[in-house]
Amino acid sequence: MPLYLVNNDEIGVNDLPKERRALIMLFGGTGDLATRKLYPALFNLYKKGNLRDHFAVIGTARNKINDAEFQELVAKSVAKESDDKKLIANFASHFYYEAHDVTDVKHYSVLREKADELDKKYDLQGNRVFYISMAPNFFGTVAKNLKTQNLLTENGEFNRLVIEKPFGRDYESAKQLNDELSASFDENQIFRIDHYLGKEMIQNIEAIRFGNTIFEALWNNRYIDNIQITLAEDLGVEERAGYYDNSGALRDMVQNHIMQIVSLLAMEQPVAFKDVDIRSEKVKALRSLRVYDVVEASANFVRGQYGSDNSNKSYREEDGVPADSNTETFVAGKLLFDNYRWSGTPFYIRTGKKLAGKFTRVDVVFKKPLVDIFAFPQSGSTPLNDNVLTIFVEPNQGFSLRVNAKNNEQGFHTEPVDLEYMEDQKNTPQPYERLIHDVLKGDGTNFSSWPEVASAWKFVDQIRRVWDIQQPNFPNYIPGSMGPVAADELLARDHRQWVYKINR
Ligand SMILES: NC(=O)C1=CN([C@@H]2O[C@H](COP(=O)(O)OP(=O)(O)OC[C@H]3O[C@@H](n4cnc5c(N)ncnc54)[C@H](OP(=O)(O)O)[C@@H]3O)[C@@H](O)[C@H]2O)C=CC1
Ligand SMILES: O=C1O[C@H](COP(=O)(O)O)[C@@H](O)[C@H](O)[C@H]1O
């Protein structure tokens, strides 16, 4: 009897994928996220048969367009996903539009009537997904109005609320938002998007850890020297200065994506591969993360802001960024857990804009053998290298394991070799496709629960507090580098170095 679980829920009749029946109400239906990511994701679910005849989408925004114009916008946004014009037209025919200002309570009765009408037309059986793809200041208002204006059904299998990022800008604002949402929806109805949790190799962390004795047996402070997480971007702030300058890399990338990755790497084995069990282990891990005091926060976190070079403007010269902005575009830090598994094994993290390339990776650095029997000076052998398990998240997907082996020359010399597996990315679903499918299935595994979000903010708030009272010396790194020198010094102080580095 195999010990792995087979998810039969994926398969419907005649080996087709199970059809997910639902009305999807999308707030912010004409926005950037909807047109660039959400419609292509829905289309791919349609192509595969997860969405078929029994679904309808009501898009909303203030702009006054009609159904035909909206369907044209949807068709255009999925055009590069298929050459089959008929398929695209059929898909787009499931989309309807209501001009709607989310702050105007009266409009919700129009939405309710439309939703009820489409429910009958497509036999949606009362299943509803409310996706808020708008600026975060609207999240609470929409959730409240959905509930008070009776858009949630009584007869359906589900009413689910999908919330985009950012979820607050500190613990207090996140708690306030959560209280607003919780007044209308239960925690198990709320799906907080963190698109990193929809990435193939982030989901693979659990398979690598819990599907392989050779890793899980060594996954602790006795065998792992340190873990490094790098989320590097070569792009700058682009058109998002208004949002980004109020956020900075700590809030934009560390509080959510990096803390989620850290929790997947640090958690204990869940009782079962189910959302409740996984979330409960992630929360436990985050709660044992040491929340720094002022001295520790200053010592263990480094911030940076990109300057200019011949071909790049500095951050402060970007459109919409104040010329004296002290917003960080780079963060590096050392995280410490106070628990039995990880005490003494640091997790180093870094993320930034205008770095040497676009790549996301996790490097797990194992301890060297206690005795290096090859290290006799007369043997001429080089010292043993670290064993490193690298999980490549982007742009390539796969992993490699660096081991020491004898080279094939005369004498006895060891050298590092990489055992490597790279995935074929052609058929990998994009994060939003996976995550929307999970919402339709009601699987909360790859979404952030409130206790996780709360713990992550409590950790990050401490760093922010310290930075807010200290004047940074910006700009302090050049575009195309791997951030400020201080990020390398952070590890050098511990007699370590980043596994991925470029020459300065
Ligand atoms: N864009 C991206 O790549 C990413 C975005 N996100 C998150 O997704 C969410 C949406 O972002 P994005 O699509 O970029 O934002 P946009 O500004 O592009 O879109 C906002 C949408 O909301 C509508 N809207 C604004 N005000 C109102 C109102 N009062 N009533 C009704 N509709 C309104 C706009 O249409 P109109 O003005 O006509 O009303 C538009 O459709 C945000 O939370 C963002 O942080 C997260 C990750 C990436
Ligand atoms: O959430 C965000 O993520 C993107 C990076 O996402 P990726 O999938 O391209 O790695 C980042 O550019 C953006 O600032 C941030 O808000």
How would you sum up this structure in a few lines?
The chain has 504 residues and is α/β, with parallel strands linked by helices.
Structure overview:
The protein has 504 residues and is of the alpha/beta class. The longest helix has 20 residues, at 450-469. The chain has an eight-stranded mixed β-sheet with strand order 8-9-10-7-11-12-13-14, with helices on both faces. The protein is built from 15 helices and 14 strands. Residues 1-8 have low confidence and may be disordered. It has two domains: 8-164, Rossmann fold (3-Layer(aba) Sandwich); 197-492, Dihydrodipicolinate Reductase, domain 2, CATH 3.30.360. It has helices at residues 32-48, 67-78, 85-92, 107-122, 139-148, 171-182, 200-210, 213-216, 241-244, 248-266, 275-287, 294-300, 431-441, 450-469, 485-492, and strands spanning 22-27, 55-61, 95-99, 128-132, 159-163, 190-192, 224-232, 301-304, 330-335, 347-352, 359-366, 388-394, 398-406, 414-422. The structure holds NADPH dihydro-nicotinamide-adenine-dinucleotide phosphate (NDP) and ligand LXAUTJHC. NADPH dihydro-nicotinamide-adenine-dinucleotide phosphate binds next to helix 1. Keywords: Carbohydrate metabolism, Glucose metabolism, NADP, Oxidoreductase. Substrate binds at residues 195, 199, 233, 252, 353, 358. Pathway: Carbohydrate degradation; pentose phosphate pathway; D-ribulose 5-phosphate from D-glucose 6-phosphate (oxidative stage): step 1/3.
